[in-house]
């Protein structure tokens, strides 16, 4: 199949999922065209059947806001015609589903019908999409999609609750390529980060308020009072500065490393003992799954789709959002002795296997095939 993938190219779960999906589909013989405003961060290898087409939005003094969806839909029209793309898969409803619908309509004028599949990722529904300023356009473009998927059951339920949806929504969970997290091949430089007796705790995100970054710092502060530890903070975003300030106030700056964005999270996870994901809301929590695939247990909030990923008392522990005291106690429970930690590490790896890429990607292929069949009928 010739498949056009539209996503956000930046660090962040939806772009990562779209990129990994495209790469896996290309290995399975499909021809993949990424259409976005920058080369996706995890898209390193372009080849015979992986292509990247950049969407350019020319600046013009009249525009206070650059009309990205207009440029995207025009690019989609051009690329569908030029490369004979058969189906579009857009990740994150805003504004991608809207732009895909416009492209579909424009192409119909030329006698071409291009179906599009929309995958809902989370904040396009829960935080941004349901805002009254966007809601009518988001509802419309979900309903006009030829097929809709959501990355967790919780996100599917949120979508049906928040919007007037006429379409079916199929759950296809996020996935993981376990081979990429096989640390027998990784140069694991634990000694550079911590001493022998220190445990390494990690958090990875875009440091938005929804990630409750200050809870991460407070939880770590409690943990390190009992267990010698270091905290690895990976990512960039608006909450980094307040987090650094809190570290100074608590006197733990020498124990917390802020890495900024990284393309080598497997190398950071390989020496991690525990992962923290304490978000206000989270449709899935791909970073937690990546941690588990590395054999790192997870302390998380019990919100959104996280309980579908992190199993209470097995791969880690879940607490109500903001319950830093309980989260700290649970973290200490996991880290307290080597036998317990080893058991949780093994469990985390086992839990991650449920989301093996090999089982999930065929579900997307089935959706594409069904959508194309429906269009021909
Ligand atoms: O978490 C973010 O703010 C980034 C966002 C994105 O679209 O990149 O992540 C969302 O999609 C991921 C991939 O499906 C999910 O794993 C994240 O849980 C989800 N984030 C939220 O729901 C807050």
From TrEMBL:
Signal peptide: none annotated. InterPro entries: Glyco_trans_1, Glyco_trans_4-like_N, Glycosyltransferase_grp1, Thiol_BshA. One of its GO terms (molecular function) is glycosyltransferase activity. It comes from the Bacteria. It holds the Pfam family Glyco_transf_4. One of its GO terms (biological process) is bacillithiol biosynthetic process. Gene3D superfamilies: Glycogen Phosphorylase B (3.40.50.2000). Residues 11-179 form the Glycosyltransferase subfamily 4-like N-terminal domain. Residues 196-350 form the Glycosyl transferase family domain. NCBIfam families: thiol_BshA. This is N-acetyl-alpha-D-glucosaminyl L-malate synthase BshA. It comes from Bizionia saleffrena. The gene is bshA.
